[in-house]
From TrEMBL:
The keyword Transmembrane helix applies. Keywords: Membrane, Transmembrane, Transmembrane helix. It is a multi-pass membrane protein. The chain crosses the membrane at residues 52-82, 94-118, 130-151, 157-177, 182-201, 213-233, 257-278, 322-341, 347-365, 372-391, 411-432. The keyword Transmembrane helix applies. It holds the Pfam family MFS_1. It is found in: Membrane. This is Transporter.
Amino acid sequence: MIPSSPVPGRLPGTSAPETGLVDVEGTTRSGKEEITGESDSSEVKEFKEGGYGWMVVFSVALVNAHTWGLNSSYAVFLAYYLRSRDIAGSSPLAFAFVGGLSISISLLVSPLVTWCIGRFGTISTFRIGVVFEAISFVGASFSTHIYHLILSQGVCFGVGLGFCFTATVGVVPQWFVKRRSFANAVATSGSGFGGLTYSLATNAMITNLGLPWAFRILAIVAFVVNGGCSLILRDRNKAVGAKHVPFHLDLFKLPEYWLFLGWGFFSLMSYVIVVFSITDYAQQVGFSASQGSLAAAIFNLSQGIGRPLIGLASDHVGRLNVAGLGTLTAGVVAFFLWVFAGKSYPGLIIYALFGAFAGIIWPCVAPVGAEVVGLSLLPAALSIYWLVLVLPATFAEVIGLMLRTSGVDGYLNVQIFTGVMYIASFVSIWLLRSWKLQQMQILGTMDDPLAIEAPNAVQSGAKASENGRPRSYIMNMFVFRHV
């Protein structure tokens, strides 16, 4: 039996974390709480779930569209680079490294961004990312050598993406309780719609205007939209008592946190390969550049439409249930649809329609993280989480291109590797689900899975753990309950 901490989200020597259900500021199960304003006034304000939070959801969705959505369009850039000679000193692996670097750098700077949020605030930190992202596209428009692209589209864009993403990823869950997963999924769906828009637009701009002006137009659009969003965005860091600590190393003492990391590590390894390879795969099996761009666009459209549905299902069926079954679905369709049907264009389109499951980590990571460590520790947990994911983000596409061979079946090894990574990710999240079920059994909350997060339930659960004996992880893998 794998040992677990007696209280979910409780680190050794710490008090019960605020989770959004019953917190240190007085949150109630109905989603209302008493908070103190930023001024010294003693006037008590009542927080209602949603409200201005929906404006926050809208702004974060636009930010995701013009950060992660733009990053998804690198599949189009990559297919163009691999078939042109515009960049001197280049190689397929170097181009793959540029794409991986943009994601890994964004994750690598997360501890710095977390510190900046605590020091300067969410909005100021976010605006730093807006500037870096615009500069990256302008710099890339003048690139003639591969190291120019590495510095601009890789490093600089990664810094901008990291500041924008890390500053906004934890904001939406602060505004919701009962609809937390749905609201978070709506916000992350922006990356899907952005990927859809810019996969098609980037291909059209490169064809009609050339590569330099494609970059410059993207720089202008991203700066204007993200800058406007910085005027709308609001956080509730003070109200929820968020702890913006870059390195909370005690988290590594929690076995459940390791399972949480494993889910993200293997899932991101697969996702990066799929999102960056689908356009090149389409062209390798005989389709045109426009058809490859359309396949990538449909893949992103599936994420844009599917993520709110995933969030809605998470709130009704269970966050860990949906995250686990969605990850399993991504592995199954990689093994069967992509391998056996991908060489026909209708089959490739059908596989692209399952894109929401391929990127299921994004709508689920914050709600699942809150289930593991609690809402107050979520910023610190995600800071380490993104840092761990630097490795798969950096080398996933490099591994994918190394596994690629020539010919129509050149992507077979890539497809098998992708499927195996998704299955490994599913095992991690399903074991994490078993841990959560153990905690529910210890605390006697099997009929009310949300009650586990209340302080009174935590205290009674600590006593129950002294007398009870939790069921094994393996047995709980076959128990289906709302969790």
